[in-house]
Structure formats: C-alpha cells, structure tokens
Predict the 3D structure of the following.
Amino acid sequence: MAQLYERLNLKELLDGDGVEPLELEKSLREVWGVNRYLGGNPALFVHLEKLMSRLNQAEPIRVLDVATGLADLPVAFVKWCEKRGRKASVVAVDNHPQIVELAARRTDAYPSIEVLSADGTALPFEDNSFDIAFCNLALHHLDEGSAAKLLGEMSRVTRSGWVVTDLERHQLAYWAAKLLAKFVWRSPVTRHDGPLSVQRSFTLQEAKQLVHQAGVKATVHKHFPFRLAVVGHE
C-alpha cells in the first residue's frame, strides 16, 4: 500500500465518462448511504443550521449545492427546511453530464430544486447570488489548485456562508473503506473508488492550507468519524 500519509492523485472511476448509467447510479446511491449512515449528513447539517439561524426566518432561502451527485442532499435539505417551516429553493449543479441527467430525474417531484450543469471551480453565477452554498464529498476529487478555486467560488457566490464537507485522510478511515468495499458495497465502482477516496482526501492541516491558498475567510472543523467541514464566513 502506498503511504497513506501522502495524498494520492490517481483518478477515481466516477471522474471519468466510462461508467454505464445504471452502474453510475448504483454507485452514487451507495455514496449516499455513506453520507446518511456514516456521519456525512450530520457534519454538514450542523453547520447549515448555524448559518441559517442568521437569516431572516420569514424570507425564502436561496441555496446552491455544488457537485450534487444524485441530488439527494438537496432533497434532504428541502425536507429538512419544510419540517422547520422554512421556505428554500436549491440550485444543484454538477459537471458530469450523466450525473446531471440522473439528478434532474431524481428531483422531478421537487419544483423547488433546479439542476444545472456547472463546474464548481468556475461557477456561472454572479457574486452573492445565494444565501448559502454547500458541497459534499467533492473536494477530494480535485487537485490542490482546483480545490482552492472551489473554496473561492463558494465564498464569492454566497452572502451568508458556505460549507464544504469531505473525508479526512486517515489510516483507520482507509481500512474502514476497505472493509466496506469487501463486505458491504456491491458496485465495483464504489469498491474501487471508496478506499481511493480516502487516499485522495485532505488532512486537517492540508485543508487549512487550502483555505489560506484560496484567500477566503473560513474555519476547518473535524467531525466523527473522519470528516472535515470547511465553513466559510464564520
């Protein structure tokens, strides 16, 4: 095994265009399971709730989700807002054409969610277009320069704040992913990409360096188990 302490720059299968749509959807659903059951959603929503508390409770919230995948997070966010009596509209973007199609189909029943094709490192929106933005499990897909650009774009297009959550590179996280790949995940894409995602992810100090490189005002938080949250405008 390559030293886990050094970040790998190998491409994941999801980063290419050679995965069949059905297999792509299966893998993305397994990724959603990781978010839901292994700490991804709590790490995100705890910070979203704090950011939303600063906003006028009576006004609708305009939100951006970058690298949306199957748009499960926008759906969960809209439902979460409804339970709290908050009105929200979400623009969900991804730069993978097949994923955009899957996300659009996934959100057919949610008129408050709009799915668009866009690159998170060069967002096609004006400054301060959104109240809040979030991005989950996308940072590790990028090299350091592109990751810093993503943070800068998240900061540029938001008025109140933003949250970028991802895996934390750690040996225990790697071996946990290897066990999931062997005993739980069924998609060969997830089995390949899951452990590699940990090897491609950033450490706490590296995430802080990205914030400095991006020149944005943000704080990096650690969450159990092996999650990082970069929160902007704190």
About this structure: The mean pLDDT is 92. The longest strand covers residues 158-167.
